[in-house]
Design goal:
By secondary structure, the protein is an all-alpha fold. Helix content is 76%, strand content 2%. Strands 1-2 form a two-stranded antiparallel sheet. Helix 13 crosses helix 14. The chain starts with a helix and ends with a helix.
Length: 341
């Protein structure tokens, strides 16, 4: 009972911290707006503030919601992969899913100049980039799913993911070499990652896809708890390991490909946040750990976004900030494991 109470208190504190960070993301930005004006716009009271209203309602609020969804989705995908592969350094970037998305975007921007057409359908600009990222990451997930039927070892599948990442990187390098200066600049800007690209109109689509991945990951809580105890034990309890692994790859695919498509390849949140949740809650039970990881991921994404917009009249690239938060966590985990062994 006391353990349950402590868990509830920690959850309440985390949710409160996330709410405070969400509010700060709305009140602070690269443009200085008085707090009183922000409150007036949010409550709909007082005079009309044309441009200011647009900044708060169409830029800051969608950006804040995007950070929450993206942070939660990346952290959840990291936790799923770390549990499935029994490897504390597994994450969407390690499995080659992010590399696949990056290759898809590189093909769209560097090869097709930012617009693609298939039959009567044609996409350009942001829609084309999103389509490229989705197709790229889903292609990698398709390869991993097909190989998981043949490769029984989780470690081998992890190595295949790393190899796919290397292959994608070499193809991206070739595309960069043959591309125009404008194309390379667009691709580099996308690779820096940001939460500001998701507009009010594309936010529902992003929330729907990432939400489906989160729901699927919540459905995997019970089998993941059993899988942790060992493959043989899980099989003896009647858990279909192949089916669990396929569902898991599908869930991580939805989570990481949606974030990469809408926000660019974001480093370290997926890798580091499950470890932060484990440190706070000191449990391996996914019934606690998965919701905790979702909230920690959302809070840290909001913090990183806030750091990005705090310098006056400029916005820092997201991937310049996430390693500052993520690298110390990963180093701590490696050093702690080293001491144990």
């Amino acid at each position: 009972s006391s353990a349950m109470n402590a868990t509830a208190v920690r959850f309440a504190a985390l949710i409160l911290l996330t709410a405070v960070l969400a509010a700060l993301n709305v009140y602070f930005g690269s443009v200085d707006i008085p707090a009183r004006t922000v409150t007036d716009v949010l409550t709909g009271s007082g005079a009309q503030h044309g441009a200011v209203e647009y900044i708060i309602l169409s830029s800051r609020i969608p950006q804040m919601l995007t950070a929450i969804i993206a942070g939660a989705a990346l952290a959840a995908s990291g936790l799923l992969l770390q549990t499935a592969f029994r490897n504390p350094l597994a994450g969407p970037s390690v499995l080659g899913i992010n590399s696949g998305a990056s290759l898809g975007v590189a093909v769209v921007i560097l090869l097709f100049g930012g617009s693609v057409s298939a039959g009567v359908m044609s996409w350009s600009g942001y829609a084309a980039v999103m389509a490229g990222a989705f197709v790229g990451s889903l292609a990698v997930i398709g390869v991993l799913l097909a190989l998981s039927a043949v490769i029984r070892s989780d470690l081998m599948l992890l190595i295949v993911g790393v190899m796919i990442g290397y292959l994608a990187s070499s193809l991206i390098m070739l595309l960069n070499y043959t591309s125009t200066a404008d194309g390379i600049q667009s691709y580099v800007m996308w690779g820096m990652g940001n939460f500001s690209g998701v507009t009010s109109s594309s936010l529902p689509m992003f929330a729907l896809i990432a939400g489906a991945g989160i729901i699927l990951s919540l459905l995997l809580v019970k089998p993941l708890n059993i899988v942790q105890l060992g493959a043989d034990y899980a099989s003896s309890l009647g858990v279909n390991l192949g089916r669990v692994r396929n569902m898991l790859l599908l869930a991580t695919g939805l989570l990481s490909s949606s974030v990469t498509a809408f926000c660019g390849p974001i480093a370290f949140i997926g890798l580091a946040m499950p470890h932060v949740a484990r440190m706070i809650f000191r449990t391996a039970d996914h019934r606690v750990l998965l919701p905790a990881t979702l909230v920690v991921g959302a809070a840290v994404a909001l913090l990183c976004n806030l750091i990005c917009v705090l310098p006056a009249h400029m916005v820092l690239p997201l991937n310049a900030v996430t390693p500052v938060v993520g690298v110390p966590v990963i180093l701590y985990v490696i050093l702690r494991r080293g001491r144990r062994s």
